[in-house]
Every structure is written in structure tokens, then in C-alpha cells.
Design a protein that fits this description.
The structure is a homodimer. By secondary structure, chain A is an alpha+beta fold. In chain A, the strands form 4 sheets. A 5-stranded mixed beta sheet of chain A has the order 4-3-5-14-6. In chain A, strands 8-11-7-12 form a 4-stranded mixed beta sheet. The first copy, chain A, has 3 domains: 78 residues, Arc Repressor Mutant, subunit A; 109 residues, D-Maltodextrin-Binding Protein, domain 2, CATH 3.40.190.10; 97 residues, D-Maltodextrin-Binding Protein, domain 2 (3-Layer(aba) Sandwich). The model of chain A has no long low-confidence stretch (mean pLDDT 86). In chain A, helix 1 packs across helix 2. The interface between A and B is large, with 37 and 37 residues. The structure holds a DNA duplex. Chains A, B: Belongs to the LysR transcriptional regulatory family. Chains A, B: Keywords: DNA-binding, Transcription, Transcription regulation. Chains A, B: This is LysR family transcriptional regulator. Chains A, B: InterPro entries: LysR-type_TF_proteobact-type, LysR_HTH_N, LysR_subst-bd, WH-like_DNA-bd_sf, WH_DNA-bd_sf. Chains A, B: GO terms for molecular function: DNA-binding transcription factor activity; sequence-specific DNA binding.
Chain lengths: 298, 298
DNA sequence: TTGAGCTTTTCCATTTCGGAAACAATGGCA
DNA sequence: TGCCATTGTTTCCGAAATGGAAAAGCTCAA
């Protein structure tokens, strides 16, 4: 019969990329790790890890097995938390992946509020703009901005995402404001990294504009700084430049045009029959925080 | 760290209702079962089973834990089957719950066709008209006829369900055929057990008729036999009386009226990230068998 | 009241498990 | 190119766990 420890060890070996490292993390000698991986492979009749003495890689069977094992382990964690009566109470470690800018501006400031209600919970937050495979990377959930797709994940909408064209008053004073969409051709535009093309919706329907400008970067933080500094016109989300619009550091241009509306801010997590309390609570917290009309829209 | 054997033992104790029985089933002495249940409870800090020396019942925590453990165990089974390369091949035991009549008429005859393609698979089929909790009862899937509801289960539609009013020619000869819906009041009607009221849809909209007749039973098999024997008018599904309609043993009455159409034949299974191959294959088999227009409708 | 059948405890034999050490293999670095 | 630190594997041994038999305590039904 399968030993659960073998699965934990296997998962740790994969996530740490080495048997020795897994052994150190779990408090076992390398010998034990090696033996139990071998035993697991023998029982399954398959090689899970392709190993040289210096590095380890997953076989195809190993990859699929690993994805499943992660689900099983968190399932067990959740079942034990439930039975231990800590079901409605968050406990353990909550691993979250979130976009860098949004995470810094609209998650980080609210974390303390969540943590003080859940003292037994540790948060691991990774900010990245890569669309990581949350199940393979071992995340409990991710906050994402994008179109809702993704097969095996459940998405819960947190807020709509509005994107506006904007520039600094300074820039407008120097270059004038565009009156119609074609005027953009005579302006400095600041494309952001993963949407080189601007999908815009206006009174006359939708349109794709290819922005051209002096600055190309993969960092939306740099675009943000550049537009505030008066470098040109950018298409920015309201959550990103809401305060600047209110304070007058930025003004909207071509207000009849907005970014295409099929973007949403959502929380995604692996589909599971029983969602761990920590995940449910955190998503509820975010949803309540942003509400139907997020504070950055008001 | 949790021992997987403890979970298997716990699940078996619950499903068999006794520690001794679980021990016999798993090949352990009663002493071992007792010790490991105790260990599990100690680790969780909760009592899972309320026990007297003669019988065992689940505590609330135990019930929730049991539901989760079942998911975990089948998850492990699936993960191992995947890694063993038997992923696309059905293997193990497939436990199915199905309605009695439908199961006898439209599942049982086709089982051999499925089994000969999957020699490593054993089938456990339980026919019952109770809406059992498939996850708690340890079923992999169920075939159901009804309105699509149910929260945590995934339903896949297999076929629409049409229900017609019918009677034997013999009965019609003796009693005449009803011409309009109100005529039913002067006829013998045969209600079936779980739909005492007939929800009908006709040209003038829908209607609920309360059938009155000399025979009341909870067995749809008896209703079926009765209507064929000429005891009255019944509302039967086409999958039930299709052959009799074709052979002339039964004729449709009030053809402008049919049973309400929001009934479907569907396969339901617990929502899981990785569906076991055996379940997927069997559902595919049934779906292909019945097709968009089931053979009993043709 | 009795007895069958259940759970639990105790003690013992057996198996399994983990670690240290020795060994083999690889890749980085001088 | 050659050295060496690091890594995975194997072997052997002590320690811990597991499973079983027997006995005890209990409950329900006849």
C-alpha cells in the first residue's frame, strides 16, 4: 500500500529540484530520500525522475503524477484542518501568486488587515507577471488580470478592469491633447509590455491601435513612471492611475475611448471539491475589499 | 505525519459500519483497526466515530472528514493509475449507482460490450431509486434521471427524457380514449411513485394533473406492468415503453400532451481535478451508446 | 440470564524505517 | 586538463513501528 510519506518526499524533491535539498528540508538523510523515491518508482513501475548525480528532471509520467500529488497533499491538509475543528479558521501557509504592480498597490497594503484576523496563518506572496502554472508551482491561488480562460482552474471575479488613455497635464501643455483617435499618430505613445496593441472601444465600435513611441519596456512600473513624468500617452488601468487622475497628476485623454472591457480582475484556484478555508477566506476578504465598485474607481 | 493506511482503514470502517468487518475486509485483526482509528483521532484531536461495543456512528467531524477522505483516496488511485501508464486504460473497480428500471433496461444489456474492451476493470453496479449521496456511499458515478441540480457534483447530459401518456389498446377498447385533458378524470390513472403529480406540457401551456387510480405503488416496474396489462393510463418515459409502443402493446393517448421537458438523463460524478479514466470512459461509452437521439426514441 | 459479537488493551515477534559510512558519478573551477 | 565539492546510491545496523494473539470489558438480542 502506498505510503503517504513517499508522496510528500516526492513532492518536495520536485519542488526543491534535488534529493539532498529535499532531505535537508524534511529532516531526512539523503539515503532515505533516495530509497523512498526508488520504492515509489518500483511500486508504480515507472521512472518519475530522470536523474544525473548533479541534477534532476521530471519524466512525463512524473510531471503528471506530481500535479496530482500536489492536489492530494493539499486535500489531506484541508481534511485534517476540517476534522481538527479549524475548518472555519485559516491555518497553515497560504501561497499566493499575484501581478507585480497590482500586488504592490492593492494587495500588499491590505495584508495586515487580513493577517490580524488570522494569526495562525502565514502568507507567502510571490509577485510576478508571468502566468505561472499555479498547481505545478505549489500555489494555493493566484490573483490575475486578464480574460477568463484556463481550463482546470476556477476563477472568481473580483472586480472589472477599466483602462483609460491618459497623460500628464505637462505633456498636454507641451503637445496638445488629441481630439480624435487618429491624432495618436502624432503623439508619443507608451505601450506596456504584454499588450503591445491597444484594443480600444469607443462610440464607433472597437479598434486596435498599434502604439508607437520612444520607450519600450517590459515593466509596467516604468511605463507608469514615464507617463506621470510626461513622456507621452499611455493606456493604464484605473487601479493603477486612479489616485493620479484624482490628484491631477494625470488627465484622461480621448475619454470616449476605453480599453476593451473583457478584462477582469479575478482570483483563480485549482478546482477542488473542498476549498481550503484559508483560500476561501482570503478571496472573500479581497472581494469584500474591492466590492462591486472598487475603491480606485470612486 | 499522517499515515495513509489510517485513512483507508477509517474509510473502510465507516463504509462497513464496524471495525471488525473492516478488519476482515482489509485482512487486519480487530486490534489493529482499533489502534489506528484511535491514533488518527488523537492526531486530529477530534473524535471521528461515536462507538458503543455494538455499533458505530460518525460524529459531525467524522462525516466531513469521511467525505474528504473518499476524495483523497480516489485521487491517489487515479494518480497511481496515471503514473503506472494505465492512465488511458480503465483499471480497478468502477462503482456505479443507477435507477432500477433504467439500469435494468438500458445499462445492464450494454455492460458486456464495455467490459470486453476493459478487461482489467471490475464493475460494481447498484440499482436503487434513492438519490444516494454518491460521494458518501463511495460511488464513482451515478446515472440519474431528473432535473439538473446538485451542488458539488458535475453532471453530464446523456439524453433528453420524453414522457408520454399511454395505455393498452385493450384498455382503450374497453374505456375509450380520452380526447382532452379533462377526460382523464373519468379514467383509471396510474401514478408512479415519486411523481404523484403529472407535470404536463401541451399546446395550451403546462399543467399539473393529479392522477387518481386504483393502484398506488412505489415501484415503477409495477406501474409498467399494470399499464401493459390494461389497468389504466400512465405517464411513462419513452425509454421505458418504447418497444411496447412500437409493437402495439401500448398506444399513446392525448398525444398533444407530454411530460414536462426539464428532465434529463445524466451521468453525475464528484467534481475533481483529475477524473479517473474508468469514469470518463464509461460515461463516454454511455453517451456514444445513447447518442443525440437515443435508440429508444427511433 | 446467557451468549455471541464487538471494541480495547497488553505483550511479543516481526517488519519497516532512518542514519552513518562508503562508494560512484557529475559538473564547476582553477 | 585535472581537482574537488556536491549529489545520488548502496550497505549495514540499531531503533521504532506495525501486526497479531489472547484476554478483558461491554452491549444487545434471544
Amino acid at each position: 500500500m502506498t505510503n503517504l510519506g513517499d508522496l510528500e518526499i516526492f513532492a518536495r524533491v520536485v519542488s526543491s529540484g534535488s534529493m539532498s535539498a529535499a532531505g535537508r528540508a524534511l529532516g531526512f538523510s539523503p539515503a532515505v530520500i533516495s530509497k523512498r523515491i526508488k520504492r515509489l518508482e518500483d511500486r508504480l513501475g515507472t521512472r518519475l525522475l530522470q536523474r544525473t548525480t548533479r541534477q534532476i528532471s521530471l519524466t512525463e509520467a512524473g510531471q503528471g503524477f506530481y500535479d496530482r500529488v500536489l492536489g492530494i497533499l493539499t486535500g489531506i491538509e484541508e481534511a485534517e484542518a476540517y476534522a481538527s475543528g479549524r475548518s472555519s479558521q485559516a491555518q497553515g501557509v497560504l501561497r499566493i501568486s499575484a501581478p507585480t504592480s497590482f500586488g504592490r498597490m492593492h494587495i500588499a497594503p491590505h495584508l495586515t488587515g487580513f493577517m490580524k484576523d488570522h494569526l495562525d496563518l502565514k502568507l507567502h506572496i510571490v509577485l510576478t507577471d508571468d502566468f505561472t502554472d499555479i498547481v505545478a508551482e505549489g500555489f494555493d491561488m493566484a490573483v490575475r488580470i486578464g480574460e477568463l480562460t484556463d481550463s482546470s482552474l476556477v476563477a472568481r471575479k473580483l472586480a472589472p478592469v477599466r483602462r483609460l488613455l491618459c497623460a500628464s497635464p505637462d505633456y498636454i501643455a507641451r503637445n496638445g491633447a488629441p481630439n480624435e483617435i487618429g491624432d495618436l499618430a502624432r503623439h508619443f505613445c507608451l505601450p506596456a509590455h504584454n499588450n503591445d496593441n491597444w484594443k480600444l472601444e469607443g462610440p464607433e465600435g472597437s479598434l486596435v491601435w498599434h502604439p508607437e513611441g520612444p520607450l519600450v519596456t517590459n515593466s509596467s512600473e516604468i511605463v507608469r513612471a514615464a507617463v506621470i513624468a510626461g513622456a507621452g500617452i499611455a493606456l493604464r488601468s484605473t487601479w493603477d492611475i486612479g489616485p493620479e487622475l484624482r490628484s491631477g497628476q494625470l488627465v484622461q485623454v480621448l475619454p470616449q475611448w476605453e480599453g476593451s472591457k473583457n478584462l477582469t480582475l479575478s482570483a483563480v484556484y485549482p478546482s477542488r471539491q473542498f476549498l481550503p478555508a484559508k483560500v476561501r477566506l482570503f478571496i472573500d476578504y479581497l472581494a469584500a475589499l474591492y466590492g462591486p465598485v472598487p475603491y480606485w474607481e470612486q
